[in-house]
Design brief:
- The chain has about 100 residues and is an alpha+beta fold.
- It has four helices and four strands.
- Strands 1-2-3-4 form a four-stranded antiparallel beta sheet, with no helix packed on it.
- A hairpin with a 5-residue loop joins strand 1 and strand 2.
- The protein starts with a helix and ends in a 6-residue tail after the last strand.
Length: about 100
Amino acid sequence: MISNLVGNLPLYLQSSDWQRLYRMDQDGCSFITFLKNTREYPITVLVVKDQAGWVFGALVTEPWKLSHGFYGSGENMLFSFEDQDDPLIYKWLGEGE
């Protein structure tokens, strides 16, 4: 699944060396720990698997931070895997706020 996701990322990210920065079952259930572990990285991919087994996430092109508004660029995207190995990609359409 992840290798199929990487093929949908912008070209300059596809050959990046990826490393795990946070994993809830190892690092604890703390958003503050998540923010600390990811603060040095300007681009991250968040992958979530919920209790029902659904896998979804986001490509985020700014460091994570607490905010009351939206942030990021048009390169940000959401994705989901609906019982398949190929992701459904949801890209910014340039509309809305």
